[in-house]
Specification:
The chain has about 550 residues and is of the alpha/beta class. It has 3 domains: about 170 residues, Thiamin diphosphate (ThDP)-binding fold, Pyr/PP domains (Rossmann fold, 3-Layer(aba) Sandwich), CATH 3.40.50.970; about 150 residues, Rossmann fold (3-Layer(aba) Sandwich); about 180 residues, Rossmann fold (3-Layer(aba) Sandwich). It has 22 helices and 18 strands. The strands form 3 sheets. Strands 2-1-3-4-6-5 form a 6-stranded parallel beta sheet, with helices on both faces. A 6-stranded parallel beta sheet has the order 9-8-7-10-11-12, sandwiched between helices. About 0% of the residues have low confidence.
């Protein structure tokens, strides 16, 4: 048995069934042995897309994906997709090939490169991974194989392995033992044993609550106070029959959720990083009347950082989200405000948000997974979702923290792989983001998916910044002459990859028209929206 075969066997044992990547000389053996062991290899057209597809695959299946790349540009192209998973705490295994050990002379000679496409891959990946290891011998792999697989499955780690081509072909001297799957220990029940007063008036949940136990969900069902969700936790509302107490909040999602935070005196934050796009530039403006903010996170560094940001009113707890929620007493939570009255206040959004409300409403019931992209389109999608959170069961995802362009159409493909064609997936993307990874529309054609493109003639949210701070000089954010974006046809891009497309003006995007699109065989709908529409923000000056 060669080392590559052992890796493929371990992947099979741990139910890693899908691999995304681009074929290349230094990774061909990894791909070949994986497929020979029954795995599915998806040949993406740009390595960047591999990580985005693995991202969507995990969110729909709960199982990590594998991405693979060859030396040099194969590895460097993987970076954005791996970083997307790292910052969103999506587990992923990235296997990168490398030139023969004898040709890795760049570091030893103080030169940039000797072997063909030799690059210092691990120095690139070490800042966007939890585990980043060189495998230079069979012994290297045997020493870490159990650790890395349990880190992926039990701890949701981002793992990068660099394996030279000749090392992949090394013979394993004896049949190694099968990997043992670590048994998860029951975390200490912090809510009941910490000695803290756990009374609260608002519960804030983040992506760290992505997978809650039945006991934790039952506790949430009983709590009567408002439950505020980050974009990364929006999907939790879909798990409950009574969704009236759920709200999305954040700097780009103004409305009832933010109003509730302003009035809160004792919010409890669980599994949420509380980053700038959630709390704004000035922490003092987040929950300004709160006498204390209880912050529960299983990452010691996150807890320390939050305690520094909210010095004087933070009650920091390092602990498991499931465990904390399981131990809460629902009777200790008193609502900040009349939920029905708060929800009824609404918020005056623009025409594009109204269109996206209709898009989501038309898709509801035909599928439940929605992936949206970066920039204005992402903000508008969640502003629309916040208006429908009590009436739909949609699970809406994005690359929440990295916010890369060209994410959603790729993630929708990975999600479709996880669903195995059993349900339709919706991808929402802006006209500016579409060219970033338009090549993967060829895969979207083979998926059970619908694509909606919000076309506002350029980079809408960048134009906002240029209007606000650069006196309206739109360099590189709208179509025009040499200092602006080169013109292209969104429809022709879509049709060039074999998908059918229709183009309509936003005024024609009625509920009836959108329902007809969702029911039709048409793959993509391009909605031309007002160039002047801005993204409403909150927690800012």
């Amino acid at each position: 048995m060669q080392l590559a075969e052992l890796l493929a066997s371990d992947l099979s044992d741990f139910k890693f069934s899908v691999m995304y990547g681009v074929q290349g000389g230094a990774c061909a053996r990894v791909i070949d042995t994986f497929v020979s062991r029954g795995g599915t290899y998806k040949a993406v057209l740009n390595e960047q897309s591999a990580g985005y597809m693995a991202h969507g695959y995990y969110l729909a299946s709960g199982r990590p994906g594998v991405v693979v790349g060859t030396t040099g540009p194969g590895a460097t192209n993987l970076v954005s997709g791996v970083a997307s998973c790292y910052f969103d705490r999506i587990p992923i295994l990235c296997v990168v090939g490398q030139v023969k050990v004898s040709l890795q002379l760049g570091p030893a000679t103080g030169t940039r490169m000797v072997g063909f496409q030799e690059a210092r891959h691990l120095r690139i990946f070490e800042h966007i991974s939890d585990v980043c290891l060189p495998i230079r011998s069979v012994e290297d792999y045997l020493a870490v194989r159990e650790y890395i697989f349990n880190a992926l499955r039990s701890e949701r780690k981002t793992v990068v392995l660099e394996i030279p081509d000749d090392v992949q072909r090394l013979e394993v001297p004896a049949a190694p033992p099968r990997l043992r799957k670590a048994s998860a220990e029951s975390p200490k029940n912090l809510a009941s044993s910490s000695g803290l007063d756990v009374h609260g008036d608002v519960l804030v949940l983040g992506a760290g609550c992505r997978s809650l136990s039945a006991v934790a969900l039952a506790t949430l069902e009983k709590i009567e106070c408002p439950v505020l969700l980050t974009w990364g936790a929006q999907h939790l509302a879909s798990l409950f029959d009574d969704r009236d107490k759920f709200f999305v909040f954040g700097t780009h999602t103004p409305g009832p959720g933010n109003a509730i935070l302003r009035a809160s005196s004792d919010p409890i934050v669980v599994g949420c990083g509380m980053l700038q796009h959630q709390i704004g530039r000035d922490p003092a403006k987040f929950a300004p009347t709160a006498r204390r903010i209880t912050f529960i996170n299983n990452d010691l560094h996150e807890v320390a950082r939050f305690n520094t940001q909210f010095a004087g009113r933070c009650v920091p707890i390092v602990g498991d989200a499931n465990c904390y929620l399981e131990g809460l007493n629902p009777e200790h939570f008193a609502p900040t405000a009349n939920i029905a009255a708060v929800r009824g206040t609404g918020y005056p959004f623009n025409a594009t948000v109204d269109v996206l409300v209709s898009v989501l409403r038309a898709f509801d019931g035909r599928g439940e997974y929605v992936f949206t992209d970066a920039g204005a389109t992402l903000s508008w999608t969640y502003q629309a979702a916040n208006q429908l959170i009590s009436s739909t069961r949609l699970k809406i995802f994005s690359s929440f923290n990295l916010h890369p362009m060209g994410f959603s159409n790729c993630a929708a493909v990975g999600c479709g792989d996880a669903l195995n064609g059993k349900a339709t997936v919706l991808a929402i993307i802006g006209d500016g983001s579409l060219p970033m990874n338009c090549q993967e529309l060829a895969w979207l054609k083979r998926s059970k998916a619908k694509l909606v493109v919000i076309d506002n003639a350029g980079y809408g949210i960048i134009r906002m910044t240029q209007d606000d701070y650069y006196e309206g000089r739109h360099y590189g954010s709208e179509f025009g002459d040499s200092d602006r974006l080169p013109a292209f046809s969104v429809r022709k891009i879509i049709e060039g990859f074999g998908l059918s497309a229709s183009v309509i003006d936003f005024s024609s995007a009625t509920d009836e028209a959108l329902i007809a699109f969702m029911q039709s065989s048409c793959d993509a709908l391009v909605i031309q929206c007002p160039i002047s529409d801005r993204v409403e923000v909150d927690f800012y000056d």
